[in-house]
Amino acid sequence: MAVIFPRWTNYVPHALTLGAVGALAAVTFAVWYWFSPWYTDVGYSPVQPIAFSHWRHAGDLGIDCRYCHNTVEISAYAAVPPAQTCMSCHERILPESPLLAPLRAAYKADDAIPWKRVHMLPDYAFFDHSVHVAAAVGCVSCHGRLDQMSVVRQENPLSMSWCLDCHRNPAPNLRPRAEVTNMAWSASNAGYNPEADPGRARPVAPPEHCSGCHR
Ligand code: HEC
Ligand code: HEC
Ligand code: HEC
Ligand code: HEC
Ligand code: HEC
Predict the structure, then answer these.
(1) 31-57 pLDDT tens trace
(2) Atom from ligand 4 closest to the CA of residue 215
(3) Into how many domains does the chain fold?
């Protein structure tokens, strides 16, 4: 009998199956990776190594955000405080608390506390805190009512469309400079008009062009 298909074609069905399995795995990985809470999920709220509560410290005790996140006005990155900042109080306040044992250990060993990162943009998107604070966009506009959270939770998607929604119409998210860290302040309640604020030297102009955020 004449050979119609050469022998190697016997392997074609296997190859197709393998290819399909591979493609499915790749798609599954991509979906799992890019859409996992690490990147997009509103509500991402990992358990932290110390039961630190913003509700207690920023809400109840009224400590200003900048006391701990002290680079937020001057740099792109909002620094998370070292153990030393905490110990300025906790050397005296609750010095024996078992909840603070990991803090005391880190302080003694001069180690960083392994806080789990909550908010995280991909590397190809550029974000700068200092610019937003200088324009007096409140922390609450992007991070929600942290003063009411015992565990930090991501409140907004941090997606491109979310950034652009505000960049196209920033006015409702502006406030007086003095209120940047005030979580309870709201423009509608205060009847604030940025154009009439003598504290503003110029109108804001957030970038909408691609290279503004992809540099
Ligand atoms: C007493 C110090 C302290 C104060 C005050 C404080 N924070 Fe924090 N903040 C921390 C620590 C420590 C972490 C890391 C642990 C965690 O996520 O709970 C953190 C985490 C965060 C995060 C999440 C960081 C990430 O990984 O994405 C945001 C956002 C944040 N703080 C905003 C604020 C805002 C807004 C205020 C003021 C309303 C504030 N913080 C007040 C200490 C503080
Ligand atoms: C300005 C002072 C101050 C600073 C700074 C501060 N705390 Fe506190 N912290 C307090 C007070 C006050 C309490 C509540 C004490 C009480 O409940 O009697 C508290 C309570 C706590 C508790 C609950 C402990 C328990 O046994 O109930 C934890 C955990 C904690 N703080 C962690 C931290 C961490 C981590 C930092 C640094 C990021 C920090 N604190 C910075 C004042 C401070
Ligand atoms: C315009 C929106 C916006 C405002 C306003 C804003 N943040 Fe953020 N914040 C973000 C984004 C986006 C990230 C993630 C940045 C990244 O991954 O590069 C972030 C991350 C953080 C982090 C984690 C460390 C870092 O820089 O990645 C802390 C802490 C934080 N913000 C605190 C604050 C505090 C405190 C304020 C107010 C003084 C504030 N933020 C105001 C959008 C904002
Ligand atoms: C709630 C409103 C708001 C949100 C949300 C917001 N921005 Fe902005 N953005 C502003 C304002 C206001 C300015 C300041 C413009 C000015 O000073 O003229 C600004 C400026 C910028 C600039 C210009 C910085 C420079 O150096 O010129 C960049 C880049 C930027 N934002 C990136 C982002 C990214 C990325 C996100 C999303 C992760 C984001 N922004 C979310 C309001 C916002
Ligand atoms: C205001 C800031 C900002 C501007 C302006 C902007 N981007 Fe983005 N872009 C982002 C952020 C933030 C992400 C990451 C989104 C995420 O993680 O979900 C992103 C993601 C992307 C992605 C990855 C796919 C996706 O949708 O997640 C592409 C492609 C992209 N941008 C292209 C563009 C192009 C083209 C322009 C100009 C028309 C542009 N961007 C303008 C902030 C911006």
Answers:
(1) 555 554 445 679 999 999 999 999 999
(2) 29
(3) 1
